[in-house]
Structure formats: C-alpha cells, structure tokens
UniProtKB/TrEMBL annotation:
Protein name as it appears in the record: Hexosyltransferase
Native source organism of the sequence: Anisakis simplex (Herring worm)
Pfam entry (one): Galactosyl_T
Gene3D superfamilies found in the cross-reference section: 3.90.550.50
Annotated family: Belongs to the glycosyltransferase 31 family.
Transmembrane segments: none
Key words, A-Z: Glycosyltransferase, Golgi apparatus, Membrane, Signal-anchor, Transferase, Transmembrane, Transmembrane helix
Subcellular location: Golgi apparatus membrane
Top-level taxon: Eukaryota
Listed PANTHER family: BETA-1,3-N-ACETYLGLUCOSAMINYLTRANSFERASE (PTHR11214), HEXOSYLTRANSFERASE (PTHR11214:SF364)
Listed InterPro entries: Glyco_trans_31
Record has Glycosyltransferase as a keyword: yes
EC number: 2.4.1.-
GO MF: hexosyltransferase activity
Length: 213
C-alpha cells in the first residue's frame, strides 16, 4: 500500500504546483484507484451459508483459492469439512475471482452447487487482485455472517493444525470477561523495504507506474 504521508505530500505539492516527475507518477496512480469497495458484483453468493447451512457457526475458515485449483479445494474439504462443524462449529469458505476460460467457470458453478461453499465476484482472478478477493469475503461476512466469532484466513496451499488454532482462540476467549474485543492476529514483518522493481510480484500495490524497471 502507499504510505499515507506520501499521498498527503503529493496532494499538497499538487496544490502548490510543486511536483517532480516521481510524484507525478504516484499522483496518476492515486487518482486512478477506485475507492468503492463494492464495485464488483457477485457471480456466486452463498446467501444461506450462515443462516441455514451453518446456523451455529463459530469458526470460519476463509480460503483464497485460484479458480483452477479444484484438487486443492477438494483436499481442504476432506480435512476441514462438514465433520468439523458437527464437532467444533467450524466451516470452510472458498473465495474466487473470475476465470478467463468459460469451461472453468462452468466447473466452478457445478462445484458451488454441490458443496455450497464458494463465493465469487466478477473481477479477474489474479495475484494482483488479491485485495479485491479479501474485500469480497469481508463484505460477505459483514452482510451474511455477522455472528461468526473467529475468522481464520488461509490460502489454498496451506494446511494448519486446526485443533491447536481452536485451542488458542478458546484461550483468548476465556481471558475476556465479556465480548472478545476485535483483533487481528498475524505475523508482523517489520523494517522490510518496499518492492519497486517492475515485474516483481511483490511490487507495491501492483501498479506498474510505481515500479522501476
């Protein structure tokens, strides 16, 4: 993400008419960013996921999955599937973008109809669009799964010890007298340089205008 101070400096210099070539590039990117988090439409939206299928859901595993990863989704269902809802009130939800091939989308529709655990919006499914994928499930949870207490976000190439994680989350819950306060638990990477090299997938934001050659 762009540093908010950098954006502020660029806009201030624009206002005063003092801006260099690099800041012009940044300004062009900033002005092109769409701020509407709901700009993309649902192509698959499991409206009954938390109301009917998993009405007593406590732990939701959200998986960022690539459209063609049918085998990975099948494997994760076998590991964290329906049996965990019955024993631990835990369910799995896959988040997808739009594939470029119609045949893949047809298979996804069949898969979603069978398992009822896929949500999808109409942005192109790509590494650069991971932010939109995250916004999709955040919107889904906010609108459809408000009663879920804990969200465990993973990618479809990750397997974790669900028993250890649930025990850890229960320990957090037990220390709270009332409602568990909102929090994000994750690994924090500190003092890492921002990637600016064009062609590198870690290039900041993913806009080539901000990446050097």
């Amino acid at each position: 993400m762009l540093d908010i101070d950098v954006i502020g400096t660029v806009h201030e210099n624009l206002r005063k008419g003092r801006i260099d070539r690099e800041q012009k590039r940044i300004a062009k990117v900033v002005n092109s960013v769409q701020t509407d988090p709901y700009r993309y439409k649902w192509t698959l939206n499991q409206g009954n996921f938390c109301n009917a299928y998993y009405s007593d859901l406590k732990y939701l595993i959200v998986v960022h999955s690539a459209t063609g990863h049918f085998d990975r989704r099948r494997m994760l269902r076998r590991i964290y599937g329906l049996h965990f809802y019955e024993t631990h009130r835990c369910a799995i939800l896959f988040v997808l973008g739009q594939p470029t091939e119609k045949s893949v989308q047809k298979r996804i529709h069949k898969e979603a109809y069978q398992y009822k655990d896929i949500i999808q919006q109409d942005f192109v499914d790509s590494y650069r669009n991971l932010t939109w994928k995250a916004l999709a499930w955040l919107r889904f949870v906010d609108e459809r799964c408000k009663r879920v207490k804990f969200i465990i976000k993973i990618d479809d190439d990750v397997i974790f010890n669900i028993f250890t994680v649930i025990d850890f989350l229960k320990s957090i819950e037990s220390t709270q007298k009332d409602e568990v306060e909102p929090r994000i638990i994750c690994r924090v990477i500190r003092n890492r340089k921002i990637g600016r090299k064009r062609g590198n997938k870690w290039c900041s934001i993913g806009y080539s205008l901000l990446c050097s050659s």
